[in-house]
Amino acid sequence: MGIFASYSCSDGGPIAAPVVEVLRGHGFDVLWDADLSSSHPMSIQAWMEKAVRERIVVIIVSESYLKALQSNDFMERLGVRYELGLIRQKLYHHVGADRCPVVVVVPPGIEMNSLPAVLQQLVAHRFDPSTRDGEEELVRSLKALEEGGCSRPSPAVQESDEVYRTRATLSALQAESLPSEKAYLLAQELVERGAGDFELVRGFESVAAVAKARGDVRLVRRLSEVCLRTLASGPPLRGEEELKAKVLIAGHAWHLLREHRFSEATLMAQDGTQIAEKVRDLKTAARGKRAEARVFLHLAAEAVGHDREYYLGKGEHLLMIAKELFRSIGGPTSEELGVCASLHAELQLLRHESTGCPDQLAAAVRRAQVAETVLTPGTEPYHWLAVVQARLCLADKKYNDGKELVTAVIATADFPEVVAKSRQVRADLLFATREKAAALRDLLAAEESYRRLGCERAADTCWWTIARYDASKVTDVRLTPADLDRLEELAPNPGDRRRAVLEHELRTPRRLVRRSAPDWVYLIDRVQHD
Question: What is the CATH number of domain 2-147?
Fold first, then answer.
């Protein structure tokens, strides 16, 4: 099975070297940090993970090792705490009290009672590096472990098969382009069998990126739930807080926004940002600020008057903070700043729609131009920017220019949510040029895409716009302009209006020649409280 020596480089070397020498003298295959200079692994973390997973671990205690285990503020030997996380996971998967593949070596001068709880539960051996007292007992104990490991694989080794499988699947996923069908199938596979799998949590960003590229809201929700549940159920890991912050911001806040659950999305973004700030993960904190700003953009779009002004001001303030953080991390040409500039253009466009001020529209156009110089053509953020630019063309009555932009996105983008939004924006442009039939075809296609992706609110918005122009495309019952006005008055949510119409459709006999007057108050109340 072999042995891995875990120790603190700052003061544990004089103790570790004699231990390694003794064990190698007795024929053990020992791996320790001094081997790094000759092996040159591509990833030290991967090297360490493999060593801890596949070998008996000998923990060589020193003062610095104890400080690193007991305090998150001890920065001298961060690797010790990372090793501890791996060792805790190894202990977590060990069944029973006997033959535990982790052994503690305690030199003179350190009291056994001073060991932290995680080490006190293990078999500990005294060893004096100067006299080698304790050598025989340590060797006997390790040989018994090694012999037992050869006859019966330990649960930790059995567990590694699943770890290898997850890593192989993640590696295959990362080798594919984000919108590819193979990457999407691999992401679904990982989420389906990922409950309790810490490797999936570590690979969250890769899997989430694929799910988002497909616009699959349900898959992002499921992935986020699985990852948070795994983090809560297992032993503490190094970097756990950073991972949790990313899941809250890039997972939960993302899907909640698309589900139109703005309050919850805001809370998730705020919680993730606070965690990221606490652990000094500035990039994730900046993304949290930007995610919260995007929620306020959507809140402002549905508000009026002073409420809209408040949400716009709040969004712009958060975006300013995010941009400063991104600039400090990646410089003025960071793609993250390009995404911020695109979002800022949307905020200023909405302000223009509120005030009619041409200066706001001009400022939005300038922001979009800045974003275009930074973002990489063909990427998802670049396609989203094209959609924003088409909306700016609509506001500036440059309808043909806007159509060209979104038509190019529809023809070339491999991102279903972007394509659906492009069809929705192109429909607005077509309505502006009195091309009603083509606009309705785009809206029907956009609605179908949104429903498939799980973006129900966006789909309902498309459905209602279709009903406004030609209700026969979406329902068998006749809707008058008065009906449509009454529904908008009773229900701000287009989904409630749609369900009320469908409920009325079910209640209306097809053989009835004369139109029955619908009781929209009753129908809206029914669908809202079912």
Answer: 3.40.50.10140
| Alpha carbon distances (Å) from 160 to 65, 80, 157 | 27, 22, 5
pTM: 0.68
The C-alpha atoms of residue 375 and residue 368 are separated, in whole angstroms, by 10
- Tell me 249's DSSP state: I
* Domain range summary for the chain, segments of one domain joined by +: 2-147, 475-529
Calculate the dihedral angle through the C-alpha atoms of 316, 319, 325, 330, rounding to the nearest 10 degrees: -120
Report the alpha-carbon distance of residue 228 to residue 201 in Å, rounded: 8
> How many beta carbons lie within 10 A of that of residue 436, not counting itself?
13
Here the tokens at position 351 are 């302000």
Helix axes 155-175, 204-213, angle to 10 degrees: 40
3-state secondary structure of 59: strand
Tokens of 116: 């932290």
Which tokens hold the place of 49? 């993970």
Who's near 113: CB < 8 A, 6+ residues apart?
Answer: none
Tell me the residue type at 234.
G
In one-letter notation, the amino acid at residue 38 is S
C-alpha span between 291 and 258 (Å, rounded) = 12
| Full 3-state SS string of 178-239 | CCCHHHHHHHHHHHHCCCCCHHHHHCHHHHHHHHHHCCCHHHHHHHHHHHHHHHHHCCCCCC
> Please, are residues 473 and 436 in contact by the beta-carbon 8 Å criterion?
no
Which residues are registered as beta bridge partners of 125?
105
Alpha-carbon Rg for the chain, nearest whole angstrom, is: 30
**Spatial contact of 264 and 272, defined as CB atoms under 8 Å apart:** no
Under a CB-based contact definition with an 8 Å cutoff, are residues 294 and 313 in contact?
no
Q: What is the mean pLDDT of each run of 10 residues along the chain (530 residues)?
A: 82 87 87 75 74 88 80 54 73 61 89 77 85 87 73 42 78 87 94 84 92 94 93 75 94 95 96 93 94 96 93 96 92 91 96 93 96 93 96 96 97 94 97 96 96 94 96 90 93 93 81 67 88
107: β partners: none
- Contacting residues for 509 by C-beta, under 8 A, at least 6 apart: none
CA distance 158 to 135: 30
- Residue given tokens 């026969």 in the structure block: 472
Place of tokens 């922001």: 367
Q: Are 446 and 420 in contact (CB under 8 A)?
A: yes
Strands of the sheet with 56-60, listed across from one edge: 30-31, 3-6, 56-60, 102-106, 123-126
- What dihedral angle (degrees, nearest 10) is formed by the CA atoms of 69, 74, 75, 79? -10
Q: Name the residue with tokens 């998802």.
A: 380
For residue 507, give the H/E element and its range: helix 494-507
Judge whether 114 and 124 are in contact, CB under 8 Å: no
